[in-house]
Amino acid sequence: MKYVKPHPEKCRFVQECMRACAQKTQKSDDISLSSILVTHADDGTVDINVCNQCGVCIDICPVTAISRTKAGTVVINKNLCVGCYACVEYCPTGSMRTHASRLAPFKCIACGACVEACPAGALELVDGEFELSYLEQNQAGETGDTFAKNYF
User: Fold this and answer.
1) Which of the four pLDDT bands, split at 50, 70 and 90, describes residue 49?
2) Is 152 helix (H, G, I), strand (E, B) or coil?
3) Could you report the per-residue pLDDT of 70-105, keeping only the tens digit for each?
4) Per-residue model confidence as pLDDT tens digits over 114-151
5) CATH 3.30.70.20 matches 2-138
6) SS (H, E, C) 57-105
7) Which end of the chain is more exposed for a tag (fewer CB within 10 A), N or C?
8) Where are the domains of the chain?
9) From CA 62, how far away is CA 65, in angstroms rounded?
């Protein structure tokens, strides 16, 4: 399966990845509609939050609006979604996004627009089994814990 692998140590925080994502997936120049989130951590380092396509959200959806494609990407069917946001709260990496202008949550679909837009090579489109995200590696907690979600 394809997923976007972040390399936050390379990031120069220009947020071109977020801009490209919002344009490609939401047809908007508003970076708050990006499925990838690049922020500064309290210690000054960069955090890149992007869905690793783990699929944990699939079973929590009460209307089966979330599924995995044949290629392995986890997708949300906006026509089936009722906007309960259970997936947003359940996502172990905080990679489900919401926005006041959208009923359905949205997430990375590994399209690669962010990878192409990043001038520093801080993102990589990988084909294979997902690895623990940057957040999971650096903020590991108890099984079932979720991580802080930084929304706009």
Assistant:
1) very high
2) coil
3) 999 999 999 999 999 999 999 999 999 999 999 999
4) 999 999 999 999 998 766 544 445 544 444 444 444 43
5) yes
6) CCCCCCCCCEEECCCCCEEECCCCCCCCCHHHHHCCCCCCECCCCCCCC
7) C
8) 2-138
9) 8
